[in-house]
Design brief:
CATH architecture of the largest domain: Alpha-Beta Barrel
Number of domains: 2
Number of strands: 17
Largest sheet: 9 strands, mixed
CATH superfamily of the largest domain: D-amino Acid Aminotransferase, subunit A, domain 2
Bound molecules: ligand PPE
Helix content: 25-40%
Oligomer: single chain
Radius of gyration: 19 Å
Number of helices: 8
CATH topology of the largest domain: D-amino Acid Aminotransferase, Chain A, domain 2
């Protein structure tokens, strides 16, 4: 799944309100967030277009981050507007055009013990170049997936709509299991046995030119790419139905694809060695993918509102 390209060695990271050198952006080994996974984060992309650099749906990402924080009673000590400015500043100061942005807020160093009261909330924003998530080829030819034996975390146990660091242990297990068994990516079912999502992606099925995607009750992270794709698909004229999807329905779909900030729109060509549709990027997936890339590349006048200028 993730390319093994390492992180950069230099640059500046915004850390608790100031820019520090890449290598100095450190955390104490007894930080609360490290021991208990008590942090929230975002993954955001900035695109280089011929009209300048734009961050895709910055407002929605920052809104989700603050909502995630609220669910864990983590008070981000900056007003949203200031945090958004810091995100844009991080891209600019590093001289980046197309990049991936990772803001994080977590309970820091003060005491140990599960109760975080009294721990400071530390915040950081890093940005670096990150190409395609599942490989260049994946965007064109699709990937090979497997149903994970790990079920997606359940809303009776954790607030699954929060993008919290600790939640990703569930994703980690699913990814490692898929890789071990020779697949590119996992698909997790929810605890009712319905299709939920990938370890870092939402999922769509296409049947008779109608799009289906699991609804919120299937324990999904409400993806911003998912939301964008729903709107773009409807705009093109496709019907989109949000409802529980069974394994059989996904396996017999005409097409299937993943959406996510990192994964963008990635076709799924196989699940557990069963071919989906024609075993390559389907027609509807291709149309949606093209529309998505046109929008993020500032080629769709009607969607410029989703693009936050960094450098124009
Ligand atoms: N589900 C999960 C579990 C998830 O992590 C993501 C994003 C999505 C759905 C799609 O959400 P959105 O990006 O808003 O469309 N995963 C992020 C982290 C991936 C990683 O490996 O790290 C991302 O894509 O940035």
């Amino acid at each position: 799944m993730v390319d093994k390209e390492g992180l950069p060695e230099e640059g500046k990271i915004w850390y608790n309100g100031v820019f520090v050198d890449w290598k100095e952006a450190k955390v104490h080994v007894l930080a609360h967030g490290l021991h208990y996974g008590s942090g929230v984060f975002e993954g955001i992309r900035c695109y280089a277009t011929d009209k300048g650099s734009f961050i895709f749906r910055l407002n929605e990402h920052v809104d989700r981050m603050y909502r995630s924080a609220e669910l864990y009673k983590l008070e981000i000590p900056y007003p949203k507007a200031e945090f958004k400015t810091a995100i844009k500043e991080t891209v600019r100061i590093n001289g980046l055009d197309a990049c991936y942005i990772r803001p994080i807020a977590f309970y820091g160093y003060h005491h140990l013990g599960v109760n975080p009261e009294g721990c400071p909330v530390d915040c950081a924003i890093a940005a670096w170049r990150w190409g395609t998530y599942l490989g260049e080829e994946a965007l064109e030819n699709g990937i090979r997936c497997t149903f994970s034996s790990w079920r997606r975390i359940d809303p009776t146990t954790l607030p699954v709509t929060a993008k919290a660091t600790g939640h990703y242990l569930n994703s980690l297990l699913a990814v490692l299991d898929a890789k071990e068994r020779g697949f590119d990516e996992a698909i997790l079912l929810d605890t009712n046995g319905h299709v939920a999502e990938g370890p870092g992606e939402n999922i769509f099925a296409v049947k008779n030119a109608t799009l289906y995607t699991p609804a919120a009750e299937s324990s999904i992270l409400p993806g911003i790419t998912r939301d964008s794709v729903i709107e773009l698909a409807q705009d093109i004229g496709y019907e989109v139905i949000e409802q529980p999807i069974t394994k059989e329905e996904l396996l017999t779909a005409d097409e299937a694809f993943f959406t996510g900030t990192a994964a963008e729109v990635s076709p799924i060509r196989e699940i557990d060695n069963a071919t989906i549709g024609e075993g390559k990027r389907g027609e509807v997936t291709g149309v949606i993918q093209k529309k998505f890339f046109d929008v993020v590349n500032a080629k769709e006048a009607g969607y410029m509102g989703w693009l936050e200028p960094v450098r124009v």
